[in-house]
Structures are given as C-alpha cells and as structure tokens.
Amino acid sequence: MSCVILSEKTTPGAPADRGERATVVSPTVREGGDPMATMDSPLLPELDPETFGHDSGPVALTHLTHDIDGDGVLDTQTFSVGDSTVVASDTDGDGDADHLTMFDSDGGFESWEFRRADDGSESWTRTDEGSLSGL
Predict the structure, then answer these.
(1) pTM of the model
(2) pLDDT tens-digit map of 106-120
(3) Is residue 65 part of a domain?
(4) 15 close to 28: Cβ distance less than 8 angstroms
(5) Does residue 1 sit within a domain?
(6) The total number of structural domains that make up the chain
(7) Which of 6, 9, 97, 123 is least enclosed by beta carbons within 10 angstroms?
(8) Residue 80, in any domain of the structure
(9) What is the distance between the alpha carbons of residues 6 and 3, in angstroms, rounded to a whole number?
(10) 8 A C-beta contact, residue 72 and residue 61
C-alpha cells in the first residue's frame, strides 16, 4: 500500500543548525502504517549499498521515523535503495548515521558502525554480516 503525504512536522531531537522542520513528500507506507523513504523521495540519504565500505563518509539522515532505543526521540530511518533496504540509526543526535544495516533482496545483510578517531579520521567498521535466507 502506498500513499502521498504532504506534511510539515517538527522533528524531535533535530540539531538546530539543520533545521527542525521537514516536509515529507511521497513516502511509502508499509502494511501497519510505518513510513519508509524510497528512491522517489527527495528525503533519501546518499548511500550506495553496492559501493559502501570502510572509506564511505558520513551518511546524513534526512527523515527519522522510528525510536529504536525507546527513549522517546526519533533516531532511525528506513529506506530502499535499488534492491536493498537500509535501517540507519543516529544514536548520538548529530544528524548522521552511527549504525546501519543493509538487507539485500536475497536475504543477505551487512551491519556497519561509524567511528571518528581522536585524530579526526572517520571510517565505517563492519560489525556483522550474513544471510537470513532459509530461516
């Protein structure tokens, strides 16, 4: 099921320098009513699952829709890129993903964690990978 939603809402926990209001345009609404950005959405973070890796830079999240840690603040965005579904979470509130998991259409998945070293260098570390096929 999909629908077109044009709305403006305050995003709890959004950094002031990135603005606290966002216009949501054409998200897909999954069964159960959970919105998910798709390739048709201008709110899609820049990420290519085919080339994502250790040297990929920060992934700015654009439309947080879930509170994954239960603290009352939206911190997670789900979106589709090609045949992959991405779940990305901003655990420190800076607007960039700190953890992300990518699921491909064959059931494979990779989980990554973003790290900033004391010298200012940034990198992603794969924390898990595998397949959900046959479960």
Answers:
(1) 0.67
(2) 999 999 999 999 999
(3) yes
(4) no
(5) no
(6) 1
(7) 6
(8) yes
(9) 10
(10) no
Other Cβ atoms within 10 Å of 23 Cβ, number: 12
Task: Find out whether 99 and 85 touch, Cβ atoms under 8 Å.
Answer: no
Domain of 122 in residue numbering reads as: 6-131
Nearest alpha carbon to residue 90 among 32, 8, 14, 1: 14
Q: Give CA angle at 56 (43, 109), nearest 5°.
A: 80
Name the amino acid, one letter, at 119. D
- What does the pLDDT look like over 79-96, one tens digit per residue? 999 899 999 999 999 999
Spell out a b/e string for 45-78, using b for 16 or more CB atoms within 10 Å of the CB, else e.
bebebeebeeebebbebbbbbeebeeeeebbbbb
User: Which residue bears the tokens 């829709």?
Assistant: 65
Q: Where on the phi/psi map is residue 93: left (φ > 0), alpha (ψ -120 to 50), or beta?
A: left
